[in-house]
Write a sequence for this structure.
């Protein structure tokens, strides 16, 4: 961070418009920092809008990492803004002899802009948390759908596996042992049983 560029010392010297007091210097520094941060906060809001739009369109590739970086940046900016806001508020309300009426106006202006930035960052952080929760809910719903499909497949194929295993035992007394149509009878029966289980689960609205 170039503090000379941030303070605009070169411009002050060129325009012969230096700070009139220490409080004016603090206010100018806060206002200059707000000028620098406002476009950044606006871009972060646009980035969060893009994340929300991407989530609505169902394109979830790399959205988690992008949202994570955005949340970390928001946290870092909030840690910078909130102490600055508290300091400006304290300077504004303290009964300090060297503060003039003009100084208090400038400090109040800087405090208001800093507070507004803090509120915007807080709002963006809350939106980011909601988007993160929405991503988690979507993933949980996808996992539930996957588990439901796996459970349905298990329900359908488990009895078929048991029946085919019993009929496949190499012992005497197996039904249709000597019938030339045994394979097709068993296959048709298993298919009918599987179809019946699928229709039953659809009737229960499990599928």
């Amino acid at each position: 961070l170039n503090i000379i560029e941030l303070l605009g010392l070169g411009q002050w010297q060129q325009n012969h418009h230096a700070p009139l007091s220490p409080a004016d210097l603090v206010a100018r520094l806060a206002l200059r920092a707000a000028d620098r941060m406002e476009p950044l906060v606006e871009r972060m809001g646009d980035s969060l809008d893009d994340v929300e739009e991407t989530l609505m369109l169902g394109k979830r590739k790399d959205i988690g990492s992008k949202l994570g970086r955005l949340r970390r940046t928001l946290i870092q900016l909030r840690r910078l803004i909130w102490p600055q806001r508290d300091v400006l508020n304290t300077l504004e309300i303290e009964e300090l002899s060297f503060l003039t009426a003009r100084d208090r106006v400038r400090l109040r202006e800087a405090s208001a802009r800093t507070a507004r930035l803090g509120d915007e960052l807080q709002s963006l952080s809350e939106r980011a948390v909601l988007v993160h929760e929405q991503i988690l809910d979507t993933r949980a719903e996808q996992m539930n759908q996957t588990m439901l499909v796996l459970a349905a497949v298990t329900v359908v194929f488990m009895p078929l596996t048991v029946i085919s295993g019993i009929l496949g035992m190499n012992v005497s007394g197996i039904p249709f042992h000597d019938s030339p149509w045994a394979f097709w009878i068993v296959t048709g029966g298993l298919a009918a049983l599987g179809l019946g289980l699928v229709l039953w689960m659809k009737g229960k609205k499990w599928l």
Observations:
- Residues 160 and 191 are 9 Å apart (CA to CA).
